[in-house]
């Protein structure tokens, strides 16, 4: 069954913005939980969440109007924050993956010495 309700790009943009804000809030919360075990890791994860949150906020028309931002400026800010979040996430995985592999190799080498 198909729906005859027309969908505008504004509806899909607001849905994506709301989803970005929700995920950002969840990631910030997770970063705060991780901060007790690893302050630097928790701060890094929280920074990813803040970038996602800002990306979603800049994508909302009402926020852009309130801040006096032109639509193309809001789009650039939103995409820039999303790109920053992606860059931080990739860097986090690469750095923590390398750290994990180094610790694994060191523990294997110490086990062989025994």
Describe the structure.
With 114 residues, this protein is an all-alpha fold. Helices cover 85% and strands 0% of the residues. It contains 4 helices and no strands. It has helices spanning 9-34, 39-59, 61-67, 71-113. Helix 1 runs antiparallel to helix 2 (39-59) and helix 2 (39-59) runs antiparallel to helix 4 (71-113). 18% of the residues are buried.
Short description:
By secondary structure, the protein is mostly helical. The chain has helices at residues 9-34, 39-59, 61-67, 71-113.
Mean pLDDT: 85
How do the SSEs run, as a string of H and E? HHHH
What level of helicity do the residues show? over 70%
- Our count of helices gives 4
Let me know the number of strands. Answer: 0
- Largest sheet, if any? none
Give me the Rg, rounded: 20 Å
Q: Report the sheet-strand fraction.
A: under 5%
Distance between the termini: 69 Å
Low-confidence region ranges: none
Structural class: mainly alpha
Shape: elongated
